[in-house]
Amino acid sequence: MERSLVKKSETSLSTAIESIEGIFFDKDMKPFEVPLWMETLVGIDWTLLHISPLYYGWGVPQGDGSPVILVPGFLANDFYLYDMYFWLRRIGYTPYLSNIGWNADCLNVLVNKLAETVSKAHE
Predict the structure, then answer these.
(1) Residues contacting 92, CB < 8 A, separation 6+
(2) pTM of the full predicted structure?
(3) Which parts of the chain register pLDDT below 50?
(4) Quick one: pLDDT at residue 10?
(5) Which residues contact 73 (CB under 8 A, 6 or more apart)?
(6) For residues 31 and 54, what is the distance between their CA atoms, to the nearest angstrom?
């Protein structure tokens, strides 16, 4: 029963994504050619992510509990990594946020903060 429900939702999702991609996205378009107004479609991306079976860990190989440290990109913080954090936890890993604050500090400070997180993950 659960398997057929997943298959049916994957088919419906695939159909929905294909119809949306056909309207809004041209696969041959280079990043610098994408019009700025397409940034307003972030809600569609967010919705498609959250209705995907993969987001809930269905059909994804389960992790073995290994620690994973999530480090934000330059000038970012841990906030935008929460979706990935919870997804990794759902599929069986032990994720850790970096706790470095904004990734714009001196390298020595960032390394010290990250070393604390690494030692916490190593325990």
Answers:
(1) 62, 63, 64, 65
(2) 0.68
(3) 1-2, 5-6
(4) 55
(5) 103
(6) 26
What is the DSSP code (8-state) at residue 100? -
One-letter identity of residue 49: L
- Domain map of the chain by residue range? 1-60, 63-123
Residue 69 contacts by C-beta under 8 Å, 6 or more apart in sequence?
Answer: 95, 96, 98, 114, 117, 118, 121
Q: In this structure, which amino acid lies at residue 76?
A: A
What is d(CA 28, CA 52) in angstroms, rounded to the nearest whole number? Answer: 24
3-state secondary structure of 116: helix
Residue 19: strand pairing partners: none
Quote the pLDDT of residue 123.
82
Amino acid (1-letter code) at residue 111 = V
pLDDT attached to residue 93: 97
The DSSP code sequence of 40-92 is GGHHHHHHHHHHSGGGGTTTSPPP-S-EEEE---TT--GGGGHHHHHHHHHTT
